[in-house]
């Protein structure tokens, strides 16, 4: 991860002066300085046709377009996630909003004021990166108070106490940074970013360096902290589970462009394209008639209308199938014979118990596919066994599977 600023001083090094608090020597979690006067609040962030290019360095190298004409808005108090694979331009867009990357064309505005030419420390935005580096020679309270030196001591102490409580570290103020776990350090970095009350907080994959279990817990805590403080935020991640947990809306990016912007549930239920569905984890795509697909899944778009295109695909996601019965010996080996409309014969590869259900890995030949190239998918077992969960069938067994509406979607072909 490219850091916008150098790391803070090593233990024992001189503490940065207060004039450095809003300079390029600030830590990776950058407190927001007091912004210039702006028009009445209410409009929030407006990004219009922003293009970010990186020069190739030679006359024969045209360089790279990292962001290709992105337009989006973030309302006051809203949390927007920029979601996409590595290299899609999401971090470049975030850095352009922050003022860390020059904008080749287009504009970034806050409350109607164009921020072109406004330096990072005058935008009133807070920044938090992947490794929210802390000052090792300061205790937790000293790190949180780093960007609010202009307050009285009583005000600083009250703000630090408030934010440590918000991030789940009440009573940690006098602890040394060296005694903290990775997750606790990120909580301190978040508190430090929130301390100056930034009008916009920009977070660039702040949880990606943590293990998955800790990321899931901190994603929930991050969401609650942003809600509790009423903070407007843009959150960059490549993990759709994180994006769905933290954000009010999710903007999916690929190759420098926006593919879809929607609330998490709408994005999952109605991906705008196969590319969006693939990135969200949908693994197989079955040609289907629009009317049949819409009725079977009861899918509706944002305008409460079903897809009406002539070419549509049933997208099968993780855990997107369910086992609906066992298959008789008369079923053709490897075939796609069904026990009824919308069901297919599958061969069991194996099973595991995870997240409260038996997940059955199956090989299934989907309609329209090559019989010699079955898709390997995961189907959920039934709930009629001991403890409410059926045990998975043995490897090699033949079962009938059907799409589970909760794990499938209909996308344009």
Question: What's the short version?
Answer:
The chain has 9 helices and 18 strands. It is of the alpha/beta class and 413 residues long. Strand 7 (200-204), helix 5 and strand 8 (233-237) form a beta-alpha-beta unit.
Please characterize this protein's 3D structure.
The protein folds into two domains: 18-259, 3-Layer(aba) Sandwich (Rossmann fold), CATH 3.40.50; 315-406, no CATH class. The two termini are 36 Å apart. It is globular and about 75 Å long. The strands form four sheets. The protein has a six-stranded mixed β-sheet with strand order 6-7-8-3-9-10, sandwiched between helices. Strands 13-16-15-14-17 form a five-stranded mixed beta barrel. A four-stranded antiparallel β-sheet has the order 2-1-4-5, covered by helices on one side. It contains nine helices and 18 strands. A hairpin with a 2-residue loop joins strand 14 and strand 15 (357-364). It is an alpha/beta fold.
* Biggest sheet architecture: 6 strands, mixed
CATH fold category name of the largest domain: Rossmann fold
Number of domains: 2
Topology order in helix (H) and strand (E) letters: EEEHEEEHHHEHEHEEHHEHEEEEEEE
Query: Which parts are unreliable, with pLDDT below 50 for 5 consecutive residues or more?
Result: 1-27, 33-42, 290-294, 298-309, 329-339, 385-389
What is the average per-residue confidence, as pLDDT, rounded to a whole number?
81
Order of neighbouring strands in the sheet with most strands: 6-7-8-3-9-10
By CATH's scheme, which homologous superfamily of the largest domain applies?
P-loop containing nucleotide triphosphate hydrolases
Assigned CATH architecture of the largest domain: 3-Layer(aba) Sandwich
What is the SS-derived class?
A: alpha/beta
Percent of residues in helices:
10-25%
Our count of helices gives 9
Number of strands: 18
N→C terminal distance: 36 Å
Q: What is the 3D form?
A: globular
Enzyme class: translocase
Keywords: ATP-binding, Cell inner membrane, Cell membrane, Membrane, Nucleotide-binding, Translocase, Transport
InterPro entries: AAA+_ATPase, ABC_SmlMolc_Importer, ABC_transporter-like_ATP-bd, ABC_transporter-like_CS, P-loop_NTPase
Organism: Cellulosimicrobium cellulans (Arthrobacter luteus)
